[in-house]
Write a structure and sequence with these properties.
Dna Ligase, domain 1, 2 domains, 5 strands, alpha+beta, 139 residues, homodimer, Arc Repressor Mutant, subunit A, 3-stranded mixed beta sheet, 4 helices, DNA-binding
Chain lengths: 139, 139
DNA sequence: CTTTGTGCAAACGATTTGCAGGATG
DNA sequence: CATCCTGCAAATCGTTTGCACAAAG
């Protein structure tokens, strides 16, 4: 049985990425959380105990991880880029009040028939973004 | 019958916005086009013949128009904010190759049942983003 | 050892803001 | 004529880049 740590190291290696403490920390942290942090949040959280990574390295690590297909960007607010280690297809819920973003399982909705888009376009995937109020903001 | 110009002026007035040449130009231009221009594209296009508006004014105009509900942002690329005068609900198609964005009519898809999101969330709207290749990029 | 990554600081680009003069209602 | 808008330039904020040193394979 492989530990969580080994799983992550193997994922990096399989994609041809060198396993550095910084990359490991970024990817491991992203995988361990449910929200979709920004670079600043990652930087802050990783360096809580003692310095693990610099800002520039987080940017370049994320870029490498993204190119490798281990991480994706989530864009729902202007000027705010968030990152998500869940690269399986899924949908998003966004709270109108607090801005919180939550993943929705792909199975939440019946399949959308994207063959119906305008003739001439070749559609290959899609995702649904749902807006509303999260639990806490309904108070 | 009211001219296009009067329609636009009335829309601005109804929202309590002063009708200035700059705001008029920004909103009229946005309504006249099908794509979703960035601020730079707007600035360039508006000032083709002779100066109509400054960069800062376009930013503030867009902000006012957006607050008034006449314009919305479209966020599909990191660091790129686009604007859309179509505030009726609709979906988007994004070309993976050239990045072009196209509106898809709301009626393109059967309704997505957003009552099925996790209990506790109060969903009130949604939109579908479809990815693929546009006509030209299939060549 | 060769190649790639890290960290710092400077560079960059998009957006915001302060302020003085100008236009709108 | 009181209020709000414009335009300029400076300030801000997120992200990228150049480079010297360090670490990975």
């Amino acid at each position: 049985m492989s530990s969580q740590k080994e799983t992550i190291m193997q994922a990096l290696k399989e994609k041809g990425l060198r396993v550095t403490p910084q990359r490991f920390a970024v990817y491991a942290n992203l995988r361990s959380r449910q929200d979709h942090p920004t670079v600043d949040q990652l930087l802050h959280d990783l360096n809580q105990e003692f310095p693990v990574s610099s800002q520039a390295t987080i940017y370049t690590s994320l870029q490498a991880l993204q190119t490798a297909g281990l991480v994706r960007e989530v864009l729902l607010e202007p000027g705010v880029t968030r990152y998500d280690a869940n690269v399986d297809r899924h949908h998003h819920f966004r709270c109108r009040r607090c801005g919180a973003i939550e993943d929705l399982p792909w199975t939440t909705f019946a399949a959308v028939d994207i063959r119906n888009v305008r003739a001439g376009l070749r559609a290959d995937s899609y995702e649904v973004t749902v807006y509303g109020m999260c639990d806490r903001c309904q108070a």
